[in-house]
Structure formats: C-alpha cells, structure tokens
Specification:
The chain has 2 domains: 1-38; 43-141, Immunoglobulins (Immunoglobulin-like), CATH 2.60.40. 25% of the residues lie in helices and 44% in strands. It has one helix at residues 2-37; strands at 43-45, 49-56, 60-69, 77-82, 87-91, 101-109, 115-125, 131-141. Strands 1-3-6-5 form a 4-stranded antiparallel sheet, with no helix packed on it. Strands 2-8-7-4 form a 4-stranded mixed sheet, with no helix packed on it. The protein is elongated, with a radius of gyration of 27 Å. InterPro entries: DUF1573, Ig-like_fold. This is DUF1573 domain-containing protein.
C-alpha cells in the first residue's frame, strides 16, 4: 500500500511540475511569435551587377549602386567590404528610412589586374536581408 501511495504522490508531483513548464513554453513561444511579426528594413538594389566592359590596365572604374529601403524600419549599414584590395567601397553612413534611398559607391583600380574581373562587395546591415552583395565585372586589357 505504501508503494502505491508513493507512486501516486510522485505521479501527482510530476503532473504539477510538467504543467508549470508547459505554460512557460507557451509564453516563450508567444513572445517569439510576436517579435517575429515585427518587420524591419529591407534593402533592394536597383542593380546588383555592373559590367564595365573593357578598359585598359591602369584605369579606375567608379560606380554607384543605389538601394531603397522597402521595409518598415530604418536601415543602418554596419560594414561594406570588397573581395580585393583593388576595390574600395564607400557608403551611406546615416540611417536610411523606409521608402528612402542610400548608396554604395565602388572604386576599382585596374592597375595590375589584367584579364576578366569579377569583384564582389559584401554589405552587412540590420535589414531583414542582413547580408547582400553587389558585383563589378568586366575585362582589363594590358597596356
């Protein structure tokens, strides 16, 4: 009989403890779901690839990639980096409000870069699409 009482007490205790945990999980799931519904900024580039065609070695190509914030919160670019030291990016440093535009300017120095070129610029931000890329490509002809 004592074994039966002990079993019943353990079962009741386990049921009470598990009910308390289930409630916490539901609250956590509700909080996560609510935060997921909040939308942020979104970067959309007018063009993601720029083909500069053929240039002679030593020429510098400058191009501006314009993007629009199509989201609902301001976008802040945190880092813009190029795949090569011959490519130098600069970018809008201030927050870009929803519906407004920003820029990523890329400068490519073709000195010592003979042949087909494809330079990738990686943009990190607080937008929904946290990491995006743009591309600069073409061919550098020898002097």
């Amino acid at each position: 009989m004592n074994i039966l009482k002990s079993f019943f007490i353990c079962f009741a205790f386990a049921a009470l403890v598990s009910c308390g945990n289930a409630g916490n999980k539901e609250e956590q799931a509700t909080d996560t779901t609510a935060s997921d519904l909040v939308q942020g900024g979104k970067i959309e580039f007018e063009e993601s690839v720029y083909d500069f065609g053929e240039i002679k070695e030593g020429e510098v190509v400058d191009h501006v990639y314009t993007y629009t914030n199509t989201g609902t919160a301001p976008i802040i670019l945190s880092q813009v980096s190029a795949s090569c030291g011959c490519t130098t990016p600069s970018y809008t440093q201030t927050p870009v409000l929803p519906g407004k535009s920003g820029e990523v300017k890329v400068s490519f120095d073709s000195n010592g870069q003979v042949g087909k070129q494809q330079k990738i610029v990686t943009i990190s931000s607080n937008a929904e699409n946290r990491v995006t890329t743009v591309q600069l490509k073409g061919e550098v002809l020898s002097k």
